[in-house]
């Protein structure tokens, strides 16, 4: 099974004719973006989730541990 990271890198390489190194850099930028969103808007969350809602999507904060 492919991870989201591996899938996105594969798409970047195939669709944008990027190198593996460029795909890696794009992934890290995307990951950093998601982390900035959860730190700012969801400071108590442990993880970022991407909701693809057909309207452009949104990053939300989640925590797998419920109290």
Give an overview of the whole structure.
With 67 residues, the protein is of the alpha+beta class. It has one domain (4-62). 52% of the residues lie in helices and 15% in strands. It contains 2 helices and 2 strands, in the order ααββ. A two-stranded antiparallel ribbon has the order 1-2. The radius of gyration is 14 Å and the shape is elongated. 4% of the residues are buried. The mean pLDDT is 85.
Give a short synopsis of this structure.
The protein has helices spanning 4-16, 20-41; strands at residues 47-51, 58-62. The chain is of the alpha+beta class. Helix 1 (4-16) packs across helix 2.
Percent of residues in helices? 40-55%
SSE order: HHEE
Distance between the termini: 31 Å
Q: Give the radius of gyration.
A: 14 Å
Q: How many strands, what sense, and barrel or not for the largest sheet?
A: 2 strands, antiparallel
**Strand residue percentage:** 5-15%
* Number of domain modules: 1
Q: What spatial form do the alpha-carbon principal axes imply?
A: elongated
Number of continuous helical runs = 2
Task: List unreliable stretches of 5+ residues.
Answer: none
Brief descriptors of the model:
single chain, 67 residues, alpha+beta, two-stranded antiparallel sheet, 15% strand, elongated
């Amino acid at each position: 099974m492919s991870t989201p990271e591996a899938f996105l890198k594969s798409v970047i390489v195939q669709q944008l004719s990027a190198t593996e190194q460029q795909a890696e850099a794009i992934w890290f930028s995307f990951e950093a973006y998601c982390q900035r969103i959860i730190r700012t808007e969801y400071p108590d969350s442990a993880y970022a989730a991407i909701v693809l809602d057909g309207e452009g999507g949104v990053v939300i904060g989640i925590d797998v541990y419920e109290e």
